[in-house]
Design brief:
Layout (H helix, E strand, L loop, with lengths): L1 E4 H14 L11 E7 L2 E7 L3 E8 L1 E2 L2 E6 H9 L6 E6 L4 E5 L2 E5 L21 E4 L1 H10 L16 E4 L2 E5 L3 E5 L10 E3 L1 H7 L8 E6 L2 E5 L3 E5 L7 H12 L5 E6 H15 L6 E7 L2 E5 L6 E7 L8 E6 H8 L6 E6 L5 E5 L3 E6 L5
Amino acid sequence: MTIVKAADLKLAIEKINKAIFIDKGIIVSNYIFIEAKENEGRIHITNIDNHFEAFFPLQGDDFRAIVSADLFIKYVNKLNDVKEIAFDLLDEGLQIKQGNSKAVFAMGDIAEDDFSLFEKIKLDGEVNKISYEDLKKVLDYLPSAVDENFYNPEYTCFLISENQALSTNAYKLCGLNINLFGLSTPYLLTFKLVKYMQGITNAGDLFFGVDEQGLHFYNDKIHILGLPYESDRIERMVSACNILLTKNYTGSIVIDKALLNEALDRLSLFINMEVKTVLKMETKGNNLILTNIKDTGREVIPVSNETGDILETSWYVDVSYFKTLFNVLVGDRITIKYDKDESTISLSDGVCNQVLALTTLE
C-alpha cells in the first residue's frame, strides 16, 4: 500500500490537467504513467515528442502503472481534499481508495515497451535560471497570434530569440521584449510543447537547459522535455516580424479597454449574422466609430491622443482576429496605431506589441 496526501496528489493533477494534450492519433497521449519510488510520486504524460512530469511526496510501496488519463484526472478531482489517498497495485489494475470510496483503474492497453517512454527525465547540459513572471507573459500573450491547425507549422510556434518572444500566423503578430532563456540561439517552440508548458503553475525558481534530448524546463515540482521545431527560416522570420513591430504610424489613439470590449460584444451580434465577419473602424473627431458591413449596428467610443489631433481615416479588420489579440491585452487603456492607406494596425498595452493585417470587403 502507498499513502499520499490528497492535497499533494491534487496539486500534481492540476498541473497535468493544464498541460495534457490528448491526440487521437497518438495512443500513448491518452494515458498517464504513475510511479511511486523511494517515497516520491511521479506522474508522466507524453505525446512522444514532448514529455511532462509532475512530482509529489508519498509513503509506502513502490509501484508503476499506466492508466486512462481522462478517467484518472476526473476521479481524483472528485475526491475529498483533506483525507489521505491509498494506492494498491492489484492484478486487475491500480486501486485508489479514500475513506469509503474505492475505484480500480485498468492498466492501459499499450505495449510493455511503451514504458520506456516514461523513464525519468534527466538533463545533461548547462542550466539557466529563468523568470517565471516572464514565462507567464509569454504563455498569456503569445497564443493570441498563432493557430493550432495552421497549414504552415512555423505559424503554430512560439519563436524565442535573444531579447524577444514572438508569435505569428502571417495575419496576426505578437511581440514581447523578453530575454526568456538567456541564450543567443533562437528556438521555435511547438504548439504541443507550449501546451505542456501551461502546466508550470507555481512561482519560484524555474530552470531551463538544452541537451541532445531537447529543451528542458524544470523545478522541484515539474520537469518538461520537448523538441523544438527545426527551421532554416528563423532569422528571416525574426527580421520580418521586427520590421512590422517597429513600424512608424502617423495616427495613434488611446481607448478605454472596457468600453471597447462592451462595444465589440454588442456589435458582434450583427457581425456574426453576415457572410464576412468584418468590423469597420473609423476615427472621426475624438471618437472611434465601429460598425458592421451593413451598418445595422453602430458603436461610438471616445478616444484620446496625447500627441495632438487625431488622424481621421477608416479601415476594416477580421473581427475574430482583432478580438483574439485585443482580449489578451491587460490594463485599463489600449493604444491603437494606424495610418491612411496602410495594410496593418498595431495594438499595445505597454508590455505587449501586436500587429494585425487589415482586410477588405472584396
